[in-house]
Structures are given as structure tokens and as C-alpha cells.
Amino acid sequence: MPGYAAALAAATTHCSVIGYKEHAALLKKDRLPEIGKKQFYNLQRKEGKGTLTRQEELEYILQLLKAEEVHVRYRAEYTVDSNRERDGRVIKDLF
């Protein structure tokens, strides 16, 4: 089935962050084939996912609040690569 691999990859990414309804809407928007609800939730079990790490939770909450145009203050530390350029951030607190 064309696009199935891309739909499965998207489901793997989405399964611990958003629900099936939101995932199905994104697949439809991207014109990808639908993955069944049972298979979507089984991906979460197969990968041992089910809970987000503290950092993933903070990133997700920050993303949701910014999408709702809520101005959030947060304290973060940035990680740097060998060239001393920023390559990531670690959110410590949301205010």
C-alpha cells in the first residue's frame, strides 16, 4: 500500500504524544493511508512507551501552551556541540 511506511513512521512518533483522533486527522491532511486504532495503540506497547520523560512532558506542555498563544516563562539550559554551537535545550522549569 503506497504511503503505508510513512503512515507507520508517523504513528510511531505520535503514539506517546497525541491521541488516535488527532493522529488520524494528521494522516488525512497529509493524504496518507489510515492505520487502525488497535495498531496505533499497540505501537505504544511494542516500543515500551507509555509514559513520557520529564523533559518530553515539559517540551510537550510548552508546545501546547505556545500553540494557544499563552506566553510562558521557562528556565532552560542549552547543550553545545564540539564547535561550541547550540545543538539542543533542556527545560528545567516552566513558570
From the structure above, extract its key features.
95 residues, two-stranded antiparallel sheet, single chain, alpha+beta, elongated
Short description, anyone?
By secondary structure, this protein is of the alpha+beta class. It is built from four helices and two strands; from the N terminus they run ααααββ.
Question: What's the overall average pLDDT, rounded?
Answer: 82
User: What Rg do the Cα atoms give?
Assistant: 16 Å
Q: Number of DSSP strands?
A: 2
Unreliable sequence segments: none
Residue share in β-strands: 15-25%
Distance between the termini: 46 Å
> Major beta sheet, specifics?
2 strands, antiparallel
Counted by DSSP, the helix tally is: 4
Major sheet: order of its strands? 1-2
Structural class: alpha+beta
Name the shape in a single word: elongated
Helicity level: 40-55%
Secondary-structure element order, N to C: HHHHEE
Structural write-up:
The structure is a single chain. About 45% of the residues lie in helices and about 15% in strands. It has about 100 residues and is α+β, with helices and mostly antiparallel strands. The protein folds into 2 domains: about 5-45; about 55-95, no CATH class. A two-stranded antiparallel sheet has the order 1-2. The longest helix has 14 residues, at about 55-65. The chain is elongated.
